[in-house]
Specification:
With 584 residues, the protein is an alpha/beta fold. It has 2 domains: 321 residues, ABC transporter transmembrane region fold (Up-down Bundle); 242 residues, Rossmann fold (3-Layer(aba) Sandwich), CATH 3.40.50. The protein has 22 helices and 10 strands.
């Protein structure tokens, strides 16, 4: 149960509603206990009438009174049962809401390295299926647990007061039941954990299959994927059947033990009635009702045990992520004002997940308002420079300063709010084109959105769609071409109007003419803005204040366009090759 202690803060938050729910539950069960005693009274009234002890009118009057009390108690019990569900079950939904928000918020604070080490399907399963299992513990388990406890506390002493011998034999099977529950619950815990792990694997497989459906179809891999899905389904069936087989023991055992209790009541009660130790047959009927009232509470014990075991297994999986501290910590709570000066001082960085050294001893300085283009071969470390500026990772050694302040000492939210980033792999949400652009500025007007779309040379493409800016994009923006996605991402960054622009090879999917138009527009938009453009094309560097060429994580050339084309090396060779391609 130690894993479920995480929920205590939520129980404290909603303590009043829970307390009210518990009180209402007890009241509902107490009203339920009224019926057996009055059923006994009805039997006694009938016996007295048959023996001539009561007149017909008096017997009828008593019967109507007892029946009225039974109906009234049943109605009140039902009413309070309704209130009980409206309090405790509602609280479980509040806790589910809070827990999902807590997990989601924590996901957002975790570093990129975390997402490289964990699969998307597993993350989704923990925030959906696992949280749902925990909710069952926070609601139904508590509600039915209080019901069961109330009945046991009220009913068992009452039975011993009325007929101790019958009560003893009626309750004799309960110790056997507790031993069986203890044994079965241990098995349930183990098998529940295996089922939850399997569900994460299934979610990951489904998510990757649906996201990569175009690749699967292109390579005609449907038969293989179907085979893998079938194997995964059979594995899930086996694990679920193993759990179901254990769960299936509960109710038959409960019914068997309750049946044994009824036999004891009838046999022992019958003997006592014949010996004159009990006055009326109504006592036997009363105890049969008591025993059957215990049927559901006793049966529910097994179900509650299963819920608790599942919830503990699920909360353990949730806690594994919640207990992970973000690698990137916001050490400065006070907002920082960002001007845009960027300085790298002997910066080296090695990716922790792969051990690949991406940068080695990189040093440069960029003043506010300057533009720098980074060139280099694939894997040279260009994108890593941008990721370190946005502090998606912390450096392995060396220092990055923004406005002469070490980047770790700046407020993280202020830093990232001052950056407009366009990643190499443009990501768009399954929403309208307008909302995808507005993502950079939530209160942007339609005129502002159209203006930046024109600057990104994507406006004409958008209005060519039947619904224009209201066109709903498919998953990851699949509705648009690669070049269109890149330009929508550029429009999003322009709309934000940040202090620092980071463009990571965001023009690779557009033609040369469109690229030149966009670069011209970017130059106008980025005046007085610190701008870094990662590219494979020299055209991006012609108007830049500084050009940096990386190779194997090191700076091999640094200067202005005019200086670098006069020097032998990678930049001059690239420039001549691309110039030749353009002329041809």
């Amino acid at each position: 149960m130690k894993e479920l202690k995480h929920l205590n803060k939520y129980f404290r938050k909603y303590w009043f509603k829970l307390l009210m729910g518990i009180v209402i539950t007890i009241i509902a069960r107490v009203f339920q206990l009224v019926m057996p005693s009055y059923v006994k009274n009805i039997i006694e009234t009938v016996e007295q009438y048959l023996e001539g002890g009561l007149t017909e009118s008096l017997a009828r009057e008593q019967l109507l009174e007892y029946i009225g009390i039974i109906i009234g108690a049943a109605l009140l019990s039902g009413f309070f049962t309704f209130l009980m569900r409206q309090t405790i079950i509602n609280v479980s939904r509040y806790i589910e809401y809070d827990l999902k928000n807590e997990v989601f918020d924590h996901y957002q604070r975790l570093s990129l390295n975390f997402y490289k080490s964990n699969r998307t399907g597993d993350l989704m399963n923990r925030i959906s299926e696992d949280v749902s299992q925990v909710r069952m513990y926070a609601g139904p388990a508590i509600m039915y647990g209080i019901q069961t406890l109330t009945l046991f506390v009220c009913l068992i002493p009452l039975m011993f007061i009325k007929a101790p011998t019958i009560a003893f034999y009626a309750l004799l099977p309960l110790p056997v039941l507790s031993v069986l529950i203890y044994w079965i619950s241990r098995v349930i815990h183990q098998r529940s954990t295996r089922v939850q792990v399997y569900l994460s694997t299934l979610s990951t497989f489904a998510q990757e299959t649906f996201s990569g459906i175009s690749v699967i179809k292109a390579y005609v891999m449907e038969p293989r994927i179907n085979k893998e899905a079938g194997e995964l389904a059979y594995e899930g069936k086996d694990k679920s059947m193993d759990l179901a087989k254990v769960n299936a023991w509960f109710f038959p055992l409960m019914i068997l033990l309750i049946g044994v209790s009824n036999i004891f009541v009838i046999y022992v009660g019958g003997l006592q009635y014949l010996k004159g130790e009990i006055d009326t047959l109504g006592t036997i009927l009363e105890f049969i009702i008591y025993v059957n009232m215990l049927t559901w509470p006793v049966a529910i014990v097994g179900w509650l045990t299963s819920i608790v075991q599942r919830a503990e297994a699920s909360q353990k999986r949730i806690n594994e992520f919640l207990n992970q501290e973000p690698e990137i910590q916001n050490k400065q709570e006070t907002p920082s004002e960002i001007v845009g000066k960027i300085e790298f001082d002997q910066v080296s960085f090695t990716y922790p997940d792969t051990g690949i050294q991406a940068l080695s001893g990189v040093s440069f300085s960029l003043n506010p308002g300057e533009t720098m283009t980074i060139l280099g071969k694939t894997g040279a470390g260009k994108s890593t420079v941008l990721e370190l500026i946005a502090r998606l990772y912390d450096v392995s050694s060396g220092t990055i300063r923004v406005d002469d302040t070490p980047i770790e000492e700046l407020n993280l939210n202020s830093l990232r709010s001052a950056i407009g980033a366009v990643p190499q792999d443009a990501f768009l949400f399954s929403d309208t084109i307008e909302n995808n652009i507005r993502f950079g500025k939530e209160d942007a007007t339609e005129d502002e959105i159209e203006a930046v779309a024109k600057m990104a040379v994507v406006h004409e493409n958008i209005i060519s769609f039947a619904k224009g800016y209201q066109t709903i994009l498919g998953e990851r923006g699949i509705t648009l071409s690669g070049g269109q996605k890149q330009r929508v991402s550029i429009a999003r960054a322009l709309l934000k109007d940040p202090v620092i622009y980071l463009f990571d090879d965001c023009l690779s999917a557009v033609d040369t003419e469109t690229e030149e138009t966009i670069l011209s527009n970017l130059k106008k938009a980025s005046q007085n803005k610190t701008t870094i453009i990662v590219s494979h094309r020299v055209s991006s560097a012609i108007n830049a204040d500084k050009v940096m060429v990386l190779e194997n994580g090191k700076i091999i050339q640094f200067g202005k366009h005019e200086q670098l084309i006069s020097q032998e090396g990678y930049y001059k060779e690239l420039y001549i090759n691309q110039l030749s391609e353009k002329e041809n």
